[in-house]
Amino acid sequence: MANGKFRRDKHPVPHFLRGWILPALLLLLWWLAVKFQWSTSPLLVPLGKVWDTSVAQTRSGELRIALEASLRRDLIGFAIGVGGGLAFGIALGLSRLFERMIGPTFHTFKQISLFAWIPLLSVWFGLGDTAKVAFLSLAAFFPMVLNTFEGIRSVPGELIEAARVLKFNRRQWIFKLVLPAASPSILTGVHLAMVYAWLATLGAEYLLVSGKGIGNTMIDGRELFLMDLVLFGVIVVGLVGFSLTWLAARVERRLLAWRGHSVTLRS
Amino acid sequence: MAAQQIALGLSAPVSATSLPARRAWLRQWSPRWLALPFPLSLLLLWYVAARCGWVAPQILPSPQTVLLTFIDLVVSGEMLDNLKISLLRVLLGFGVGLTGGLLLGVSMGLSPVFKDYVYPLFKAFSQVPVLGWLPLLMMLVGIDEVLKIILISQAALVPIAINTCKGIENVPTRYVEVARVLKFSRWQLLWRVIFPAALPPIWNGVRYGFTHAWLALVVVELLASSEGLGYMIVYGRQLFQLDVVMAAVAVVGAVGYCLDRILARIEVMLLGSRRRGF
Amino acid sequence: MTVDRRSVLKHLAVGGVGVGTAMLGLTAQGVSQPTVIRIGVAQPGIGNPPVFSGSSAAVANAKGWVEEEFRPDGIKVEWYFFKGAGPAVNEALSNQQLDFAFQGDLPAIVAKAAGLKTKLVLATGVRSNIYLAVPPDSPIQSVKDLRGKRVAIFKGTNAQLPINRVLEANGLQERDLRSINLDQGTTLAALTTKDIDAAFGNINLLRLRDKKAARIVFSSKGGSPIFTTQSHVLVTEEFAQKYPEVTRRIVKTFVKTAKWASDEGNSEEVLRLWAKAGTPYEHWREDYDGEPLRVRINPNFDPFLIARYKDSVEQAYRLKLSRAKFDVDQWIDQSYLKSALKELNLENYWPVYQVNGKILGA
Question: Which CATH class is domain C36-127+230-344?
Fold first, then answer.
């Protein structure tokens, strides 16, 4: 153990079971509350109802439609944001002049809390998915630029010396030195961009209300007081969030395998 | 090849962005003024676009209009009132999230048993982004202040708890061994060894948590509020007054920046060294 | 070999460009019809296919009469619905994503004052009632008791001005309340969970009353008509200039619909059609009780309505909701309406209201 407090594990509950106790307790509490009607609020739906709704939503294809819509926007915005962010970040990192001229303006815009852009975007892009995708690209853009920039700026000195000795030309400089050295940061940027893009997908669906999506499903559930639908949405959102980050981590590990050691992600 | 020579610029401090010698004078000059031409030209473009009507005036109000509206709002006190309310909300919510996050993170970091019990559930909850909880919370607690505080604190709590826990876990064992050799008491071990060593990642989490808290504040005010900066943005949007929206957005950016700077300052004070931002 | 191929390609290219421009020229001359007509509605569309309510435009949509009118020309008609009501329609209009819009007076006024180029062509859904609802156990008995309370108001929609008039009539201003901007669905939810102390809204609030989740303490029904909301259909100047004929035909279709709906024999069906959008038939009956349908579906911009719009422009400016004043008479383009009425021989079909609210000749 890192904190060095080594005690013989006298705890009665075996290791692998511990994580399950709290969730099980919560579910039990929920079940009891429903059974004994601790609350008459229509918000207290039985577990079974949530399960039924989940199944119904999946079977009827509603889930697929909503998820497809959300994910499609998410991935398009993510791709644009990451691509643009990578280019911009490289420019910022490699060119002092560019950084001096454009950097401060960029850092100022970065300060504007993400969702404050939405009303502007909705007026500039109108109804439809364009505004949402623009917003998602923005959400992915900023973390990507920052991490790319940081990665490029922190290329170790020895490597630069080595490149100089080997008389690298411009192309080799970028592709054989800077990008590989900066890749951990760049991939952290991708990871963060993914997190923000998913967050922004939901927010965009709340604030730019039109069309389908998992966020819209939850809003509808809320307006109609369907707790089961809302809970179903929460579970789906969590699962998707988890899958996306897991995917990002796997890709990162694979791409960085050549480095020979694992990279701790700043989450 | 000219490119080669540029790449092999001499007299540059070790950095990936070595400039050719002839550009070294750029650094000598106060680099401040270089930052100006770009934003100024953007401003000029904006002014010209509005003046020549390249874009409809309701989509892009002219810079003068935005400035005048901004001054108007400040003078009438509206801006300040809404700002105060937003600040109070975010400070309260962030305070709650900070406390909760630190407590949770410390407990999980120090007690592996506790972590075994709590971490899986916590991890599962943290997979749902803050906004995913919004409709659920709206149903449970309504749209009043409570909703906002809960969301803001939750936005801050997750990254703070995770970073605190990881920070404590990553304290190198040899530090702890040294403490044991020096026969530190439990309390001393905590205060003099573990926390200082874990502080950089913890503070990183705090700054990150604050960014998220500010984000959550803006969203929740956009969705259901009767006062605050987000409310001003909504009001402007509903009434097609983009200049109000832009003025409020500018203030949101400025305040977010100032608060983040304050945190950075505190970080410097605590750590005594320069840190790269997130 | 290369030279030959290159020269062949060159010839082909020139030829292609030539044909292309010729075709463009032909089409530019011949184009007097759009491929699609986009109509925006400042209400959420309910059901599949989506429908809305409260106006002759709604009836036309439900019956598909606009589509029918333009099918022989191969012009598609697309209806767009906006949960965000008038303000959201404005966003779409300013992005040139709509040609026509069914909208309330205030959002259209605000947009026009901000520079959006539109023309009003038809009145519909006029004199709609507003209601004030509170939780059943609330101490609020009337509008006077609203001081300092949390009240939901859907800002930027045509309800905002009548609400302000009601408040002023009771010695209050919007500033004296803690007004929250909520859309229709959120308002109903928030009132049920008692998150707000009161809510201004339209006929949809009656649903809560029936569920015993709310009590209605004020209704504009039976009171002065200045406390009612007005709506209209407008067209973008661009569309009207490019396709005046199509605009005329759409107005005619709506007028025909209005005539059909104003016929007392059809009133039952009209209300049932509107009920499909969510508000029960009984509530429509209740809201329209005592007034013939034709009053509210009147497509005419009679002196009363024009005076109302002029007053709204003034009030919006006074309340700092809009930035400029403009000439309402210039804004309303009666030409399409007049020609449709003449063609259908309906010039005297609807009552003409004076400025003071009384019918001409009554």
Answer: alpha beta
